[in-house]
Amino acid sequence: MQNIHQRKLLTRRVPVYFGVAGSRNIGFIKAISAEGLEITSKYCYDPPARIDMSISTDNGQTDFHGVVSNVRRSQSQEVPGAIPSNEMTVDVIERPRSYLEFLHDVLEFDIKSRHDKRFEQRLRVSFASNAELLDEYTHNISVGGMFVETPRLLERGSLVEISLLVPELMK
Description:
mainly beta; six-stranded antiparallel barrel; five-stranded antiparallel sheet; 11 strands; 10% helix
């Protein structure tokens, strides 16, 4: 299995449904390669669980299977009020053609769309979505944007007004 640092970190949020024995949880692909992927979610399975996964692509739904090789559970006291987000590394054991085509499309999009250097930075961000105020945290940030993980799906291209809370500037 590739080290996660050898995988491609994604700049866009790609949902993945996963589970064991018919259960269905949602997570998001954080990093991906032909050999496997890393999923962030509030749900996770311990190694060596065999899980079923499903992603939606332009060509329909792609189903594939993998084995959990590593889990990193979040520490809820790490950031007060944050939604727990676990990370689960999964070795893909079946790579249907549609998975490899999806991988190619995602990586091609990612390469074309990223212009600015990104910095791994965890900052609190507040924004309004569907008449509710959300408090979340960035994972990385650049001049052109930021990645904020949230359990709420926003439509691609949605305009949101955000407040970025930078501790050094609040002193």
